[in-house]
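User: Please fill in residues for this 286-position structure.
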């Protein structure tokens, strides 16, 4: 089992995860409907007996309709909203939208380049495939939690060029949040022995409808050589509130995550920095 930064023969893995916040402001609709007085007089058919003051009634309705809006603050999911249901403006802009990232799709294979272990000025180019993306309440290694769901990707990297044979290769993958652009704090992960596998567990927060909600990421990865091909297989899973679509998993050239002396950089590259890099691959858990 490969742990963070552990060097297997000719394979070095770096795995990081990042996260974001989000929140939900509940604005339970206080009805904006004005209920009209019902005429419950079922006995008298003579409506002239008690004439209604229609002008006064209209005035009252008008006052109710022109109530002073009380706005909840906008968040990443909703514009500012009044209890009457009216909205104004737009939701907060998503950090990822500013940079025009393109997302990769599950089931397709993309070129992926990363720095070599023995010489980080040299790169190996291989591929990344997100084999499967699923949203489940629970499955093996991922227990159910009320109000949360698991968003899970299984991915495979393959390297077989001359450089991976000569110098081995690092890889780096992190999770960022589509909305606030943040990532998991590095160093908070713990290694957990699950039912069949070890995995890294990290806590992070998302802001969903205006509320910060604690979530969890679990990372599994392992590598081996098969027929002269270096194959790394991983699973990245996030436990998020049901419906939350802000997780983004990034496969990054490890050169961007290491210092001159080979230490893992903390903090990790910001979204703005990542946008200026070339070759990163972004998968959104949407
Ligand atoms: Zn209102």
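Assistant: Residues filled in for all 286 positions:
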């Amino acid at each position: 089992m490969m742990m963070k930064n552990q060097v297997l023969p000719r394979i070095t893995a770096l795995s990081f995860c990042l996260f974001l916040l989000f929140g939900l402001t509940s604005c339970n609709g206080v009805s904006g409907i004005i209920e009209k007085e019902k005429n419950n007089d079922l006995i008298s058919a003579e409506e002239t007996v008690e004439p209604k003051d229609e002008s006064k009634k209209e005035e009252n309705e008008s006052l109710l309709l022109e109530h002073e809006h009380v706005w909840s603050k906008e968040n990443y999911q909703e514009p500012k909203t009044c209890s009457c249901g009216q909205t104004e403006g737009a939701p907060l802009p998503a950090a990822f939208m500013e940079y025009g990232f393109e997302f990769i799709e599950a089931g397709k294979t993309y070129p992926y380049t990363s720095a070599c272990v023995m010489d980080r000025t040299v790169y190996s180019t291989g591929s990344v495939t997100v084999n499967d993306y699923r949203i489940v309440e629970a499955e093996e290694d991922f227990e159910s939690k009320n109000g949360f769901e698991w968003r899970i990707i299984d991915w495979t990297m393959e390297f077989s060029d001359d450089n991976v044979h000569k110098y081995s290769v690092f890889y780096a993958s992190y999770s960022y949040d589509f909305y606030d652009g943040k990532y998991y704090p590095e160093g908070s992960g713990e290694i957990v022995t699950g039912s069949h596998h070890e995995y890294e567990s990290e806590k992070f927060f998302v802001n969903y409808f205006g509320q910060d909600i604690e979530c969890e990421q679990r990372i599994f990865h392992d590598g081996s050589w098969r027929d002269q091909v270096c194959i790394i297989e991983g699973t990245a899973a996030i436990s998020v509130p049901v419906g939350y679509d802000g997780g983004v998993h990034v496969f990054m050239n490890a050169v961007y995550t290491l210092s001159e002396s080979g230490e893992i950089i903390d903090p990790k590259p910001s979204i703005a920095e990542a946008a200026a890099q070339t070759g990163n691959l972004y998968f959104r858990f949407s």
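For context: Residues 54-65 form the longest helix (12 residues).
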